[in-house]
């Protein structure tokens, strides 16, 4: 690298900064400075970046400046996670979060703030779960374990033998005598060869979601599931599970990855060992809760709606910081940023804090139902539910023409490293809109996910794991996409 003196460095830095504001590459800005000293020439053909409207470049720069210098996401998240904490659907903390979300958006000065009533499941964990590996000589080894969301309790201590499998197909091949009256231990790990951890999560997730059903079909007494993560630690990961009303309901619990490795190793040495599980979880009657909606009315096309949101509920083991406190505060912040820089969206924009994504997605379904009932026109919906890490871009569920149109905005987003625009999943809460009102695009905010599943659904999902700059950059990225959608439509 060539070293520059301080004056030259300052001059080049100033030119680069001016280039960002003008939508030009730094090299173009340097050529422009030299041209100012020479005789004017006939302009050359504009490059793809130079053709981007200057006004849009300046607008996005102002959005990011506001977020980085005066952003409010981080302090909002500090309050949500620190003062309110975990927000499992049906809990008092979930209701406190609803009231906080409504008050926060009213304080931000949105045109309209309101609640959408929705009935949600009310599952409670009860006392801390206990799990022990019991050897044939009575030796007991305590291991980290937690109930899967929606599981039935054990009704006291439940002790049984253990059969390890890695797939449902492997379970089906075992004789009845080998599995009846035992725990089925699903020990399929993440596929760490996959670059995107979300793909590994998806491929390993069936054992958590349906493991108890498949175990009960074979006469097993319960399901033990390896936590869905590539991290090796003592944090068990909860998450929702399902039951089939035609099949006996048996308990489902997650083992930490260290505990799963230990149990697997000990089973190889002693196939006759037992596992003892104690859980007091239960499902109570449903509870009335709410989505929280904040709205800025469009100046030209108020009947056309852009939704941006995250889910307000969280699992009960920690503070729900990355999942999905970050998505909630970023969604509210996206609207605040547009107001702060003086941009009045041409299309109506809504920030929605969805309730009950984790164990039912009732909030997203109700939002879509009401949109259809009211015959609303939705241009697009954006969801942030992948953590508050460094922004990378956006996933789109859309036809090829729409994807191509949005991809043309990438040069505007490139200075902020958020120009990775590809086909992909939009989000669980906005998915019901597809069938209900057929928006042009469902858009998933995409950030660096390499660390996400280390803390996902665990006691480690706390405020201290969130970086302020990464969080504020995410809100600005979402606000920038809204700016472009509002101005140009789809």
TrEMBL record:
The organism of origin for this protein: Hymenobacter sedentarius
Protein name as annotated: Carboxypeptidase Q
Any GO molecular function: metal ion binding
Signal peptide annotation: 1-29
Lineage, highest ranks first: Bacteria, Pseudomonadati, Bacteroidota, Cytophagia, Cytophagales
Main location: endoplasmic reticulum
Endoplasmic reticulum found in the keyword field: yes
Domain of life the protein comes from: Bacteria
Biological processes, Gene Ontology terms: peptide catabolic process; proteolysis
Family matches, as InterPro entries: CPQ, Peptidase_M28, TAT_signal
């Amino acid at each position: 690298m060539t070293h520059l003196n301080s004056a030259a460095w300052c001059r080049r830095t100033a030119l680069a900064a001016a280039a960002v504001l003008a939508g030009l590459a730094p090299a173009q800005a340097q050529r422009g400075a030299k041209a100012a000293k020479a005789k004017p020439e006939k302009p050359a053909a504009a490059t793809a970046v130079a053709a981007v409207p200057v006004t849009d470049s300046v607008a996005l720069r102002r959005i990011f400046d506001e977020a980085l210098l005066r952003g409010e996401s981080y302090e909002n998240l500090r309050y949500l996670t620190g003062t309110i904490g975990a927000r499992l659907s049906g809990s008092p903390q979930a209701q406190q979060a609803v009231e906080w979300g409504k008050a926060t958006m009213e304080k931000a000065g949105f045109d309209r703030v309101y609640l959408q009533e929705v009935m949600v499941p009310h599952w409670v964990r009860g006392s801390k779960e206990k799990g022990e590996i019991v050897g044939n000589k009575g030796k007991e080894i305590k291991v980290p374990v937690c109930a899967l969301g929606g599981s039935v309790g054990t009704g006291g201590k439940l002790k049984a033998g253990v059969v390890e499998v890695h797939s449902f197909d492997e379970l089906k091949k075992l004789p009845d005598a080998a599995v009846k009256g035992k725990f089925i231990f699903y020990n399929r790990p993440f596929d760490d060869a996959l670059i995107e951890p979300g793909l590994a999560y998806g491929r390993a997730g069936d054992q958590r979601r349906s493991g108890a059903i498949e175990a009960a079909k074979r006469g097993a007494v319960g399901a033990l599931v390896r936590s869905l993560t590539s991290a090796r630690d003592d944090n068990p990961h909860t998450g929702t599970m399902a039951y089939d009303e035609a099949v006996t309901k048996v308990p489902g619990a997650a083992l930490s990855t260290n505990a799963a490795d230990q149990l697997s190793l000990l089973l190889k040495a002693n196939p006759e060992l037992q596992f003892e599980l104690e859980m007091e979880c239960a499902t109570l009657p449903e509870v009335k809760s709410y989505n929280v909606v904040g709205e800025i009315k469009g100046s030209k096309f108020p009947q056309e709606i852009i939704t941006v949101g995250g889910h307000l509920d969280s699992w009960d083991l920690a503070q729900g910081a990355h999942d999905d406190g970050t998505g909630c505060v970023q969604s509210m912040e996206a609207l605040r940023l547009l107001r702060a820089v003086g941009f009045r969206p041409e299309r109506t924009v809504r920030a929605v804090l969805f309730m009950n994504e984790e164990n039912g997605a009732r909030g997203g379904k109700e939002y879509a139902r009401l949109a259809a009932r009211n015959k609303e026109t939705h241009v697009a919906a954006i969801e942030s539910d992948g953590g508050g890490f460094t922004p990378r871009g956006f996933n789109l569920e859309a036809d090829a023409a729409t994807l191509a149109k949005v991809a043309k905005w990438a040069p505007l987003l490139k200075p902020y490293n958020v120009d990775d625009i590809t086909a992909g999943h939009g989000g669980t809460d906005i998915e019901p809109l597809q069938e209900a009102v057929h928006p042009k695009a469902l858009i998933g905010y995409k950030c660096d996910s390499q660390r996400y599943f280390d803390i996902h659904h665990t006691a480690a999902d706390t405020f201290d794991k969130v970086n302020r700059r990464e969080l504020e950059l995410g809100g600005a990225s979402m606000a920038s996409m809204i700016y472009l959608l509002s101005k140009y439509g789809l």
